[in-house]
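Morning F.,

Quick status update on the modeling queue. The single chain you submitted on Monday has been processed. Sequence for confirmation:
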Amino acid sequence: MSLFGLMDVRRLLFVVALVAPLGLLNCGGPPPNSTYGAYSVGEMASVSYGTIVSMRPVAIQSPPTGIGALTGAAAGGVAGSYIGGDPRANILGAIGGALLGGLAGSAVEGSLSGGRAIEFIIRLDDGRTVSVVQSNENRFTIGQRVAVIYGRRVRLAPVYG
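Structure tokens below.
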């Protein structure tokens, strides 16, 4: 590989390393239950009422997107390409850096894409029992009356009065 070709590869890896982390900004789990998307305005949802009979913490795990591994591999490849004094050492350093960076980036993505939530078991007024997993931003408690809202997502809302 010529020196010119090596410089082009370095530039490409550098650009990927700078741009790819932007994809990780979207790795934060679902939005809070009091946040609705613009598409939800004007949509009708059905509502049932019930009482929370049980709740337990659960882990939320998103499927990997590969962005973390790609970002890590690109950054590791760029950093590794500067190791050594000749083109062969630079290429070997880039390969080793990309492998290690990809592993590290994948681990980082995994830690960013998970979260915690609560599984609520609700006994509906019609006698059925349902389960809803969501955050507990409303600080629901066992025995509390809730509205179960069936739309694009099922959500719980407090019942007042």
